[in-house]
Fold these 4 entries.
Entry 1:
Amino acid sequence: MANFFAGVQGVLTILLMISGGWILGRKNWFPGDTITVMSRLVLQISIPAMMLSSVISTFTREDIIRMGPALLLPLISISFLYCLGAALARVLRVPAGRRGVFRANIAFSNTVFVGVPVNVALFGEQAAPYVTLYYLVNTVLFWTFGVYFIRRDNEAQRVPVFSLKSLQQIFSPSIICFGIALFLVLYEINLPVFILGSLKYIAALTTPLAMLVIGVGLDLSALRRVNRQIVTVLFARFILAPALIFFLLTTMELPSLMKKVFLVTAGMPVMTQITLIAKAYGADHENAGITATVTTAVSLVAIPVYMILFGDL
């Protein structure tokens, strides 16, 4: 019960910060490219700093070695959901030019920009490395197969699954810093106190900045444009994905915190990068954008439900 009330406090904290961003956004507090700069600061500076500081501060060499098999859980879950998305696209008669985006929306969750700050707000900074495990698999599969089939939505696109650009996107600052942190822990290399302290201060920017940006970009009018495809994505993202992870968790002995983080991360909104990739390659970016907004709004209701269901794992 104590864990439940702690989770409720974390959810209320998230809602308050997002609400603050939404109100400030409606009052035009963020002119020009302010939000773009804030997003870049979170993705390229504060989250990578959190990866370094949290892994170094939280885990030992033995912990790192034990975490390896856990990568199978998101790998199996995301792969299953992606294949299911392909089947559902045919059942629902999704037009050929929209199927890549539809599959991606079904399978890939927003593990970094939403997943990291939400999990940190709910469970503390020690949750960040576990989110990164999920993020690693999510990112590799998205920037290979996910992007490949989104580009295939445009009949003019004939591209390889693997490309230099996809590799560059996989090795993002967060993944690179996570790898550096693993190396330091595995070889028991200690950073100077002043560097570790600086990283922790920078990492503390992550949750408030990310929540403000989410609030500013939240367009609740998108809820009026929900269609059958979006309803299917909502079911997959917020019910099927966590349920699948929950089933897979019964097959492995894992730390309680890792279980909670994987369950919450599996049920995050769709990746915002899906909209960007769809727009860049002439795919169904409009529907992708609406889906991203709707799933982000619905996640504000889903997160408290997760805490009720999984808070005492």
Note: The chain has 15 helices and no strands.
Entry 2:
Amino acid sequence: MTLAGGERAVVVKDLERRFGTFVAVNRVSFAVAKGEIFGFLGPNGAGKSTTIRMLCGILAPSGGSGTVAGFDVQTQSEEIKSHIGYMSQKFSLYEDLTVEENIDFYSGIYCLAPERKRQRKEWVIEMAGLQAHRQARTGILSGGWKQRLALGCAILHEPPIVFLDEPTSGVDPNSRRQFWDLIYELSGRGVTVFVTTHYMDEAEYCDRIALIYHGELIADGAPEALKTNFMQEDVLEVVCERPQDAMEEIRTLSGVKEVALFGKSLHVVADDGAAAARSIEELLPPRGFQVGRVEKILPSMEDVFVSLIEARDRAARPRPEVEP
């Protein structure tokens, strides 16, 4: 299928969805380029899935405008559905059917011609690594196999845009890596991939990321740009003995805003990294902690995300009244 609407696969302006008085998505605006891997991040309940459902023509927007594959999200939901692939957060295949029966079912939904249906079925089975399991009941497959089969069924009709809602949730790290290899392969062929994830390391794999919080878009950009332009504080990596205990000590220091475990080290977010580093090096040794290294580092996506959320929460808090 060809992509209508030029080089921008998805364009959204002031998109909104209300459920009664509750605003689930609040005037969100962004654009996604053709062939881009676009990551949509946010905590549970932030509005990720609601946004995807509007873009896929499943849920009507309450306000705003947008196009997907050149079709209007308000008036052309059926045209959108025929030009996209959609893999939902919940496993979407029929577990009582075999691998081949699931593929045949989705081929029928997409009205594939017999010859094309045979070709695409073989492609999905090979892509998913299920050559020896064609007649196996889908319910007995491992999480990684189910995941690849679900992706294959979602793109049987070779859509120009694919929406993946938490596609790697609940699978092992190796399966997650293999799945992202498939995403890169799709993007390399010009397919636009719109993916939501709660794994911050996966955000690094995206060409561009949008962060949504309480239904509002709070940042949008390439991972490196977000880490260099949106993080107001400094981040230190602290390598020391008993990091769990050291974390509580570091939290008492003035100017330290956040301390978190990252593997065997600590990430310390501070207003002034140099001052915080000196304070940490003066604090820990007298209290029995051997310090291996304290150095300023480029923030991780998790550091950026936490910082932006905290900044938004601070801005939303009512200011105390000042007595005259």
Note: The longest helix spans residues 173-188.
Entry 3:
Amino acid sequence: MANGGIDSGEFISALDALAKERRINKDVLFSAIEAALISAYKKNFGKTANVRASIDREKGTVEVLSRKIVVEEVGDPLCEMTLSDAREIDRRYEVGDLVEVPVTPRNFGRIAAQTAKQVVVQHLREAERGVIYDEYSQKENEILTAIVQRVENRQVYVELGRTEGVIEPNQQMPGEELSINDRIKVYVLEVSRMGRGPQVFVSRTHPGLVKRLFEIEVPELVTGVVQIKAIAREAGFRTKMAVFSTDPQIDAVGSCVGPRGMRVENVVAELKTENIDIIKWSADPAEYIANALNPARVISVFTAENEKSARVIVPDNQLSLAIGKEGQNARLAAKLTGWKIDIKSQSQVEELMQAAPFEEEEEPAPDDIDLDDVNLDDFDLGDGEI
């Protein structure tokens, strides 16, 4: 830097190294330093001065230029210049032109180095925050490996690499106890710009976490041969996932389960023993609903398309299994399929049919009667008055 500053060659080398280390565009660094130089000049040589700082991108030399408008009569000497003074610099100047005059003080390099440091650091931080925000905003709806750092006010803070993530209480798996330095997989919900830098909100309960975990384990999901059609999850307890194969030769459920169940076991291990039901998706609602109630065996399914509701009949010994503990199996099946599901045992259906009253056929209403054709003497009307 000229005029008492650091060596120009060292200055450019330092910027190159800093830009590479922080992964920040070098032009951003130059702009930050030029802004700092303007701030330093105004602080020491006049707050109202209209100046521009310029750094040679190749040589590293610094120059401060006073910017003045050419006028016929000067009202503010800090911002204006007479035409005669302007033409001493260049005879081509006219009234209204902008003239830039070098005003770099001799000791400006030292003053700039002292004053600009904090401003440069601030700009670097802001630029780095922008880089981090751009990087992590592209990872929304993806999963990352996180390391638990601390737990404060029921919020879990995790290290995600270049920044920190937070798992809010409603995004934590019930019953899961996390310790410092635990390595876990998290699903990126949202990346927000905050005053102190980007805030990354991550989840352990989102169904997308299950989907992404299976994509890591199942190559057929990555190629698209096997597709995940729907996921219903009660985090920490049970998940139902409907899968479909575009190739009749490939078993979608078997692909996700894996040889000796290894693929699904790897996912379950990450979710701390959460039960996972993998079922075959079907375009036929009745078949899909029957599959969704797995592991229960279904006898028949009656659907009402208009109401998106279904009555399912199961064997007596399968009723509790179909409904599940506290209704969980039936609830997840309904959430997975998007249908209302009413489950009855075989004996319950038989009892309902037996208890239904016999409906007599209603006689048709007679046509209008012509009273002229009726002899009232044929009827005993009693002593009452008509």
Note: The first strand starts at residue 51 and ends at 55.
Entry 4:
Amino acid sequence: MAQSPPTASVNRVRGRLSRRSGSPGLQPYDFHRPIKLAREHVRLLQIAFETFARGFGTLLNTRLRAQCQVSLLAIEQLTIEEYIATLSNPTMIATVSLEPVGGSTLLEISLPTVMTSLDHMLGGPGGPQPERPLTDLEMPLLRSLLDRILGELAYGLEGLVDVTARLGGIEYGSQFLQGFPPSDLLIVASFEMKVGNEECVATLCLPFASMLPILRNHGTDIELSETELAAKRTAHRNITQGLTSAPIDVAVRFRPIRMRSSDIVGLRPGDVVPLAHPVAAPLAVTVNDTTFAHAVPGNHGSRLACLVVPGPKEDRRS
């Protein structure tokens, strides 16, 4: 059977990934999001999500009696705000509780794919479906299917953590996500999902803050290949070289003094301000208001300079 071309939603996910990972040259560093998933952590998640995708696809084939396929597309680290921007409306978003993992887990599937799945469950041929909320008869069928899907999710995550998955509320759009803090981080797994002729990109979101300790506890025994080890060493060397050659503003300071605001306002050229710094006390050498050394003032030829000396505590220990 000839393979159908990727849908527009699949192409959007692939395009987003290629823009993030395929651009040459320097990559921007987000200081608001310094913690990123390590390669070994992504590897652990990939194994878990691929296991989930296989079970998910087999379950759909069995329950819907239609040609179904689910495959992992990507694993990304996104904020709530970035994730909402990737969603289309209307869509089905189910909230899930994974105990003992904290936070809310989200399972999102496009509404046309959900309606097509329900049509197959009821013996229908699939095909174009109306975009509307589910009826009171359709909702129990969907919840039953989602419960079975969550069972496959718990099985896929067994290698990381034993969880009990419980289905919560079901929404029909991303509006309810507006109540979440927009900067909260998510681990977003995207899956290419096919139910008959209907295709979409389904997403599974796990709370980043809750999953990171679990991944760190399981990431210490991962064996990396020689290529991965070489890439890790190269990255460490490049970061080290970049940090050692980065210019830093250094200040040599006297001890601070306290003055009244009226005295400061009344200062004129030629006024003398006593510093109250003992003559025998060294000056503080600081970076970003943090003292890391002590020095005495002097000169080097015609230029001002300072000589680094032991600090007061170092001097007493000697």
Note: The radius of gyration is 30 Å.
